[in-house]
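User: Sequence recovery, please. Input:
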Protein backbone atom coordinates (compact mmCIF):
# COMPACT_ATOMS: atom_id res chain seq x y z
CA UNK A 1 0.00 0.00 0.00
CA UNK A 2 1.39 3.40 -0.93
CA UNK A 3 2.33 5.86 1.78
CA UNK A 4 1.94 9.60 1.75
CA UNK A 5 4.31 9.93 4.70
CA UNK A 6 7.52 8.49 3.29
CA UNK A 7 8.56 7.93 -0.29
CA UNK A 8 11.44 6.75 -2.42
CA UNK A 9 12.55 9.16 -5.11
CA UNK A 10 14.48 8.21 -8.24
CA UNK A 11 17.71 8.03 -6.24
CA UNK A 12 16.26 5.06 -4.32
CA UNK A 13 16.99 6.62 -0.93
CA UNK A 14 14.55 6.91 1.92
CA UNK A 15 13.19 10.42 2.44
CA UNK A 16 12.38 11.24 6.06
CA UNK A 17 11.46 14.16 8.28
CA UNK A 18 14.36 16.07 9.84
CA UNK A 19 14.24 16.21 13.64
CA UNK A 20 13.12 19.85 13.61
CA UNK A 21 9.97 18.96 11.68
CA UNK A 22 8.98 15.87 13.63
CA UNK A 23 7.27 17.92 16.34
CA UNK A 24 4.69 18.95 13.75
CA UNK A 25 4.77 15.79 11.65
CA UNK A 26 1.03 15.75 10.99
CA UNK A 27 1.23 19.26 9.52
CA UNK A 28 4.35 18.64 7.44
CA UNK A 29 3.68 15.33 5.73
CA UNK A 30 3.83 16.85 2.20
CA UNK A 31 7.32 18.17 2.96
CA UNK A 32 8.76 14.73 3.67
CA UNK A 33 9.74 14.15 0.05
CA UNK A 34 11.84 17.33 0.11
CA UNK A 35 13.79 16.73 3.31
CA UNK A 36 16.32 14.08 4.25
CA UNK A 37 18.32 13.34 7.36
CA UNK A 38 21.55 11.43 6.79
CA UNK A 39 21.51 10.20 10.38
CA UNK A 40 18.05 8.69 10.02
CA UNK A 41 18.96 7.19 6.66
CA UNK A 42 21.76 5.33 8.41
CA UNK A 43 19.07 3.10 9.91
CA UNK A 44 18.64 1.63 6.44
CA UNK A 45 21.80 -0.39 7.12
CA UNK A 46 19.89 -2.44 9.69
CA UNK A 47 18.16 -5.67 8.77
CA UNK A 48 15.78 -5.01 11.65
CA UNK A 49 12.82 -2.80 10.77
CA UNK A 50 12.46 0.46 12.73
CA UNK A 51 9.06 2.11 13.07
CA UNK A 52 8.87 5.34 15.08
CA UNK A 53 5.49 6.49 16.38
CA UNK A 54 4.30 9.83 17.69
CA UNK A 55 2.13 10.29 20.79
CA UNK A 56 -1.01 9.50 18.76
CA UNK A 57 0.45 6.21 17.51
CA UNK A 58 0.91 7.54 13.99
CA UNK A 59 3.98 6.59 11.98
CA UNK A 60 6.58 9.35 11.62
CA UNK A 61 9.57 7.29 10.43
CA UNK A 62 10.33 3.89 8.92
CA UNK A 63 13.65 2.54 7.71
CA UNK A 64 14.18 0.46 4.57
CA UNK A 65 13.65 -2.94 6.24
CA UNK A 66 10.37 -1.75 7.77
CA UNK A 67 9.32 -0.13 4.50
CA UNK A 68 9.87 -3.45 2.71
CA UNK A 69 7.60 -5.24 5.18
CA UNK A 70 4.93 -2.53 4.95
CA UNK A 71 5.00 -2.59 1.15
CA UNK A 72 4.69 -6.40 1.11
CA UNK A 73 1.48 -6.02 3.11
CA UNK A 74 1.24 -9.66 4.19
CA UNK A 75 1.63 -8.83 7.90
CA UNK A 76 1.00 -5.12 8.27
CA UNK A 77 0.76 -2.00 6.14
CA UNK A 78 0.37 1.75 6.47
CA UNK A 79 -2.30 4.14 5.30
CA UNK A 80 -1.88 7.87 5.91
CA UNK A 81 0.44 7.24 8.84
CA UNK A 82 -1.77 4.65 10.54
CA UNK A 83 -0.42 1.12 10.97
CA UNK A 84 -2.88 -1.58 9.98
CA UNK A 85 -2.74 -5.36 10.40
CA UNK A 86 -3.18 -7.46 7.27
CA UNK A 87 -5.66 -9.85 8.87
CA UNK A 88 -8.46 -9.44 11.45
CA UNK A 89 -6.76 -11.95 13.75
CA UNK A 90 -3.60 -9.81 13.83
CA UNK A 91 -5.36 -6.54 14.68
CA UNK A 92 -5.43 -7.00 18.48
CA UNK A 93 -1.77 -8.04 18.39
CA UNK A 94 -0.78 -4.89 16.54
CA UNK A 95 -2.89 -2.73 18.87
CA UNK A 96 -1.15 -4.29 21.88
CA UNK A 97 2.27 -3.63 20.32
CA UNK A 98 1.43 0.02 19.68
CA UNK A 99 0.19 0.39 23.26
CA UNK A 100 3.45 -1.09 24.57
CA UNK A 101 5.44 1.34 22.40
CA UNK A 102 3.57 4.29 23.90
CA UNK A 103 3.62 3.07 27.51
CA UNK A 104 4.71 5.78 29.98
CA UNK A 105 7.67 3.78 31.32
CA UNK A 106 10.11 1.23 29.95
CA UNK A 107 9.91 -2.15 31.66
CA UNK A 108 12.85 -4.20 30.43
CA UNK A 109 11.70 -7.23 32.43
CA UNK A 110 8.27 -7.34 30.85
CA UNK A 111 8.07 -10.14 28.26
CA UNK A 112 4.75 -8.67 27.13
CA UNK A 113 6.62 -6.24 24.89
CA UNK A 114 7.42 -9.06 22.45
CA UNK A 115 4.75 -10.03 19.90
CA UNK A 116 4.33 -12.36 16.92
CA UNK A 117 2.48 -10.97 13.92
CA UNK A 118 1.28 -13.90 11.77
CA UNK A 119 1.71 -14.21 7.99
CA UNK A 120 -0.07 -16.68 5.75
CA UNK A 121 2.83 -18.27 3.87
CA UNK A 122 5.97 -17.16 5.72
CA UNK A 123 7.40 -17.00 9.22
CA UNK A 124 5.65 -14.52 11.54
CA UNK A 125 7.11 -11.07 12.08
CA UNK A 126 8.71 -10.73 15.53
CA UNK A 127 7.87 -7.38 17.13
CA UNK A 128 9.62 -5.67 20.05
CA UNK A 129 7.94 -2.49 21.29
CA UNK A 130 9.18 0.12 23.74
CA UNK A 131 8.62 3.79 24.58
CA UNK A 132 11.42 6.25 23.85
CA UNK A 133 12.59 7.75 27.14
CA UNK A 134 14.12 10.74 25.38
CA UNK A 135 14.60 11.80 21.79
CA UNK A 136 15.95 14.86 20.06
CA UNK A 137 13.16 14.29 17.56
CA UNK A 138 10.33 16.01 19.39
CA UNK A 139 7.45 13.82 18.27
CA UNK A 140 9.21 10.46 18.56
CA UNK A 141 7.41 8.77 21.48
CA UNK A 142 7.60 5.04 20.76
CA UNK A 143 9.58 2.58 18.70
CA UNK A 144 8.59 -0.76 17.18
CA UNK A 145 11.30 -3.13 15.98
CA UNK A 146 10.34 -5.64 13.30
CA UNK A 147 12.38 -8.77 12.63
CA UNK A 148 11.72 -10.84 9.53
CA UNK A 149 13.32 -14.27 9.87
CA UNK A 150 12.92 -14.81 6.13
CA UNK A 151 14.87 -11.68 5.14
CA UNK A 152 18.39 -12.42 3.85
CA UNK A 153 21.36 -10.66 5.43
CA UNK A 154 24.83 -10.67 3.86
CA UNK A 155 27.65 -10.95 6.36
CA UNK A 156 30.33 -8.29 5.95
CA UNK A 157 33.72 -9.56 4.79
CA UNK A 158 35.39 -6.41 6.11
CA UNK A 159 33.85 -7.03 9.56
CA UNK A 160 35.29 -10.57 9.68
CA UNK A 161 38.70 -9.31 8.61
CA UNK A 162 38.70 -6.65 11.33
CA UNK A 163 37.42 -8.86 14.16
CA UNK A 164 39.50 -11.98 13.48
CA UNK A 165 42.38 -10.73 11.28
CA UNK A 166 41.20 -13.00 8.48
CA UNK A 167 42.60 -12.59 4.99
CA UNK A 168 40.18 -11.61 2.25
CA UNK A 169 40.08 -15.19 0.99
CA UNK A 170 39.47 -16.65 4.46
CA UNK A 171 36.68 -14.17 5.12
CA UNK A 172 35.12 -14.81 1.72
CA UNK A 173 35.09 -18.55 2.45
CA UNK A 174 33.35 -17.97 5.79
CA UNK A 175 30.67 -15.87 4.10
CA UNK A 176 30.19 -18.44 1.33
CA UNK A 177 29.78 -21.31 3.81
CA UNK A 178 27.37 -19.25 5.92
CA UNK A 179 25.27 -18.56 2.82
CA UNK A 180 24.99 -22.27 2.04
CA UNK A 181 27.85 -23.03 -0.33
CA UNK A 182 30.05 -26.08 0.13
CA UNK A 183 33.85 -26.14 0.14
CA UNK A 184 33.76 -27.59 -3.38
CA UNK A 185 31.37 -24.82 -4.54
CA UNK A 186 33.73 -22.18 -3.12
CA UNK A 187 36.78 -23.79 -4.73
CA UNK A 188 35.11 -23.90 -8.15
CA UNK A 189 33.86 -20.31 -7.90
CA UNK A 190 37.26 -18.97 -6.81
CA UNK A 191 39.12 -21.28 -9.22
CA UNK A 192 41.30 -22.80 -6.49
CA UNK A 193 41.86 -26.40 -5.47
CA UNK A 194 39.74 -28.15 -2.87
CA UNK A 195 42.87 -28.54 -0.71
CA UNK A 196 43.37 -24.77 -0.80
CA UNK A 197 39.79 -24.26 0.35
CA UNK A 198 40.36 -26.72 3.20
CA UNK A 199 43.53 -24.85 4.19
CA UNK A 200 41.62 -21.55 4.26
CA UNK A 201 38.96 -23.12 6.47
CA UNK A 202 41.59 -24.47 8.85
CA UNK A 203 43.14 -21.02 9.19
CA UNK A 204 39.69 -19.53 9.83
CA UNK A 205 39.14 -22.11 12.61
CA UNK A 206 42.40 -21.10 14.29
CA UNK A 207 41.76 -17.35 14.07
CA UNK A 208 38.14 -17.54 15.28
CA UNK A 209 38.91 -20.07 18.02
CA UNK A 210 36.48 -22.66 16.62
CA UNK A 211 37.14 -26.34 15.90
CA UNK A 212 34.01 -27.34 13.99
CA UNK A 213 32.20 -25.82 11.05
CA UNK A 214 28.89 -25.90 12.96
CA UNK A 215 30.42 -23.80 15.77
CA UNK A 216 31.80 -21.35 13.23
CA UNK A 217 28.38 -21.02 11.59
CA UNK A 218 26.74 -20.24 14.96
CA UNK A 219 29.30 -17.52 15.55
CA UNK A 220 28.73 -16.05 12.09
CA UNK A 221 24.97 -16.14 12.64
CA UNK A 222 25.29 -14.11 15.84
CA UNK A 223 27.58 -11.61 14.12
CA UNK A 224 25.19 -11.23 11.21
CA UNK A 225 22.33 -10.23 13.48
CA UNK A 226 24.44 -7.81 15.51
CA UNK A 227 26.03 -6.37 12.37
CA UNK A 228 22.70 -5.26 10.96
CA UNK A 229 21.10 -4.24 14.25
CA UNK A 230 24.24 -2.44 15.42
CA UNK A 231 24.42 -0.32 12.28
CA UNK A 232 20.90 0.91 12.86
CA UNK A 233 21.47 1.39 16.59
CA UNK A 234 24.50 3.63 16.07
CA UNK A 235 22.65 5.62 13.44
CA UNK A 236 19.65 5.96 15.75
CA UNK A 237 21.77 7.31 18.59
CA UNK A 238 23.46 9.72 16.18
CA UNK A 239 20.07 10.95 15.01
CA UNK A 240 18.90 11.49 18.57
CA UNK A 241 16.22 8.88 17.91
CA UNK A 242 17.39 6.74 20.82
CA UNK A 243 18.29 8.71 23.95
CA UNK A 244 20.99 7.81 26.46
CA UNK A 245 22.51 10.27 28.89
CA UNK A 246 25.95 8.97 27.90
CA UNK A 247 25.42 11.03 24.76
CA UNK A 248 24.25 14.13 26.63
CA UNK A 249 26.87 16.36 24.98
CA UNK A 250 25.13 16.05 21.60
CA UNK A 251 21.53 16.08 22.86
CA UNK A 252 19.41 19.01 24.06
CA UNK A 253 18.08 17.03 27.05
CA UNK A 254 21.10 17.65 29.31
CA UNK A 255 24.19 19.78 28.75
CA UNK A 256 27.34 19.51 30.90
CA UNK A 257 30.40 21.76 30.67
CA UNK A 258 33.63 21.08 32.56
CA UNK A 259 34.84 24.05 34.66
CA UNK A 260 37.61 22.55 36.81
CA UNK A 261 39.54 19.33 37.33
CA UNK A 262 42.17 19.47 40.10
CA UNK A 263 44.11 17.00 42.21
CA UNK A 264 43.47 17.13 45.98
CA UNK A 265 46.94 17.80 47.43
CA UNK A 266 46.11 16.62 50.95
CA UNK A 267 44.47 13.43 49.64
CA UNK A 268 46.78 11.76 47.11
CA UNK A 269 44.92 9.72 44.52
CA UNK A 270 41.80 11.89 44.72
CA UNK A 271 40.60 14.73 42.53
CA UNK A 272 37.80 17.30 42.38
CA UNK A 273 35.70 17.91 39.28
CA UNK A 274 33.39 20.89 38.85
CA UNK A 275 30.87 21.11 36.02
CA UNK A 276 28.14 23.45 34.94
CA UNK A 277 24.94 21.68 33.92
CA UNK A 278 21.69 22.66 32.29
CA UNK A 279 18.53 20.60 31.82
CA UNK A 280 16.20 21.46 28.99
CA UNK A 281 12.54 21.98 30.03
CA UNK A 282 11.29 18.58 31.15
CA UNK A 283 14.79 17.17 30.63
CA UNK A 284 16.05 14.12 32.49
CA UNK A 285 19.03 11.81 32.67
CA UNK A 286 19.26 8.05 32.96
CA UNK A 287 19.01 6.27 36.32
CA UNK A 288 22.61 5.57 37.36
CA UNK A 289 25.15 5.43 40.18
CA UNK A 290 28.83 6.33 40.64
CA UNK A 291 30.92 3.74 42.46
CA UNK A 292 33.98 5.96 42.87
CA UNK A 293 32.79 9.40 43.91
CA UNK A 294 30.51 11.60 45.98
CA UNK A 295 28.44 14.16 44.10
CA UNK A 296 27.18 17.55 45.34
CA UNK A 297 24.66 19.40 43.16
CA UNK A 298 23.94 23.09 43.73
CA UNK A 299 20.92 24.48 41.86
CA UNK A 300 21.52 27.94 40.36
CA UNK A 301 18.20 28.36 38.56
CA UNK A 302 14.94 26.45 38.59
CA UNK A 303 14.37 23.20 40.48
CA UNK A 304 15.65 19.65 40.07
CA UNK A 305 13.79 16.55 41.19
CA UNK A 306 16.10 13.70 42.21
CA UNK A 307 14.89 10.14 42.79
CA UNK A 308 17.28 8.27 45.12
CA UNK A 309 17.41 4.46 45.15
CA UNK A 310 14.07 4.36 43.39
CA UNK A 311 12.38 6.03 46.35
CA UNK A 312 10.46 9.28 46.65
CA UNK A 313 11.84 12.15 44.59
CA UNK A 314 13.54 15.03 46.45
CA UNK A 315 13.06 18.55 45.12
CA UNK A 316 16.10 20.86 45.17
CA UNK A 317 15.24 24.50 44.44
CA UNK A 318 17.29 27.56 43.49
CA UNK A 319 20.01 28.20 46.11
CA UNK A 320 19.73 24.68 47.58
CA UNK A 321 22.08 21.72 47.27
CA UNK A 322 21.84 17.94 47.42
CA UNK A 323 24.60 15.45 48.26
CA UNK A 324 24.61 12.01 46.63
CA UNK A 325 26.88 9.38 48.15
CA UNK A 326 28.81 6.79 46.15
CA UNK A 327 26.91 3.70 44.94
CA UNK A 328 23.51 5.37 45.41
CA UNK A 329 21.24 4.86 42.43
CA UNK A 330 19.71 8.17 41.38
CA UNK A 331 18.00 9.94 38.52
CA UNK A 332 17.62 13.69 38.11
CA UNK A 333 15.13 15.67 36.05
CA UNK A 334 14.06 19.24 35.52
CA UNK A 335 10.97 19.81 37.66
CA UNK A 336 9.67 22.33 35.12
CA UNK A 337 8.24 21.47 31.70
CA UNK A 338 8.60 25.08 30.55
CA UNK A 339 11.86 26.55 31.90
CA UNK A 340 15.47 25.28 31.92
CA UNK A 341 17.21 24.29 35.16
CA UNK A 342 20.85 25.28 35.72
CA UNK A 343 23.17 23.78 38.31
CA UNK A 344 26.77 23.26 39.44
CA UNK A 345 27.90 19.71 40.16
CA UNK A 346 31.00 18.98 42.27
CA UNK A 347 32.45 15.47 42.29
CA UNK A 348 35.07 14.21 44.74
CA UNK A 349 36.50 11.02 43.30
CA UNK A 350 39.42 8.67 43.02
CA UNK A 351 41.68 9.28 40.03
CA UNK A 352 41.11 5.79 38.64
CA UNK A 353 38.95 5.55 35.50
CA UNK A 354 35.37 6.53 36.39
CA UNK A 355 32.96 3.73 37.08
CA UNK A 356 29.33 4.50 36.42
CA UNK A 357 26.52 1.97 36.36
CA UNK A 358 23.25 2.78 34.60
CA UNK A 359 19.94 0.93 34.51
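Assistant: Recovered sequence (359 residues):
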Amino acid sequence: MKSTARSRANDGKLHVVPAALLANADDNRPNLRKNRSAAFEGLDAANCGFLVLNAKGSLVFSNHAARTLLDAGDALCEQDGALQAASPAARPILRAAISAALAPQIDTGNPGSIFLLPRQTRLPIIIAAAPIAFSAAGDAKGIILLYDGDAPVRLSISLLRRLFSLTNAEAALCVALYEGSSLRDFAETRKVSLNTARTLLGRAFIKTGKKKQSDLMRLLGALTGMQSLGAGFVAGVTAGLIGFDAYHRSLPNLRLESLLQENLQRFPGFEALVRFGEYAPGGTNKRHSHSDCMEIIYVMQGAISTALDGGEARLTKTGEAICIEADVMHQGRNASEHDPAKFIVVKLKRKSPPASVSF
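The chain has three domains: 7-148, 157-239, 245-358.
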